[in-house]
């Protein structure tokens, strides 16, 4: 029996091979999100950002027409990752922004952890473009949002058809941590506990027995 040698779908995220891209999480766009409760979505976004910060993963934030109705990037992101934002002048697809794409390329990392508002535009378009150019994109659906569940489901199907890896923020964290004995494992564990109420009980049990 022969086994496939293509590891594209089995190679894991690490703190050394990934970059985080937060795309258009802007106040005006957040208002239209209907596929997730706003409080849960905010919590998921914070969990993803804190995961990247704790693991030392480089992060890139971009916004579109923030002087107009889209509004500024939400503070739940900038309070964690800082306010160095690539402000696009008109490109709907962030990958069409030379500054945004150059920032990704400059990290030297081929795995992009990507989230955006709205999922079917701000996340979908750059994810498709990045995959077409050989990048390995992880679309974090629960740290993204769109108009309703139907739009989310249709977009998820199109992402997977293109080879994008659809995932969640907690799965990203666990994949990066890899081992409870790894560097920053305890800090990452507390990120998970702080943004996942149910898992907080697991963390309390784990550290109580150390």
Keywords for this entry:
6 strands, 9 helices, globular, 210 residues, alpha/beta, Rossmann fold, Isochorismatase family protein, Isochorismatase-like_dom, Isochorismatase-like_sf
Describe the structure.
The chain is of the alpha/beta class and 210 residues long. The chain has 9 helices and 6 strands, in the order E-H-H-E-H-E-H-E-H-E-H-E-H-H-H. The protein has helices at 27-30, 38-55, 75-81, 98-106, 119-132, 149-161, 169-177, 185-195, 197-208; strands at 18-23, 59-64, 85-88, 111-116, 136-140, 165-167. The protein has a 6-stranded parallel β-sheet with strand order 3-2-1-4-5-6, with helices on both faces. Helix 5 links the parallel strand 4 and strand 5. Helix 5 packs parallel to helix 6 and helix 7 (169-177) packs antiparallel against helix 8 (185-195). The termini are far apart. This is Isochorismatase family protein.
Question: Brief overview, please?
Answer:
It holds the Pfam family Isochorismatase. The chain has 210 residues and is of the alpha/beta class.
């Amino acid at each position: 029996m022969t086994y496939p040698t293509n590891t594209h779908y089995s190679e894991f995220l690490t703190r050394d091979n990934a970059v985080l891209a937060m795309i258009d999480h802007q106040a005006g766009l957040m208002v239209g999100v209907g596929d997730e409760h706003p409080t849960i979505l905010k919590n998921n976004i914070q969990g993803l950002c804190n995961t990247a910060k704790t693991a030392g993963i480089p992060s890139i934030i971009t916004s579109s027409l923030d002087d107009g109705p889209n509004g500024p990037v939400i503070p739940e992101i900038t309070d964690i990752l800082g306010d160095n934002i690539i402000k696009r002048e008109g490109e709907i697809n962030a990958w069409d922004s030379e500054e945004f794409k150059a920032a990704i390329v400059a990290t030297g990392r081929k795995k992009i952890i990507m989230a955006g508002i709205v999922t079917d535009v701000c996340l979908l378009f750059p994810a498709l473009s990045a995959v077409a150019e050989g990048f390995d994109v992880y679309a974090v659906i629960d740290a993204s949002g769109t108009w309703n569940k139907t739009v989310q489901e249709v977009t998820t199907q199109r992402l997977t058809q293109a080879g994008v890896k659809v995932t969640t923020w907690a799965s990203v964290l666990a994949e990066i941590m890899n081992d409870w004995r790894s560097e920053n494992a305890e800090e990452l564990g507390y990120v998970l506990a702080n943004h996942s109420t149910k898992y907080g009980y697991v963390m309390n049990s784990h550290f109580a027995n150390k």
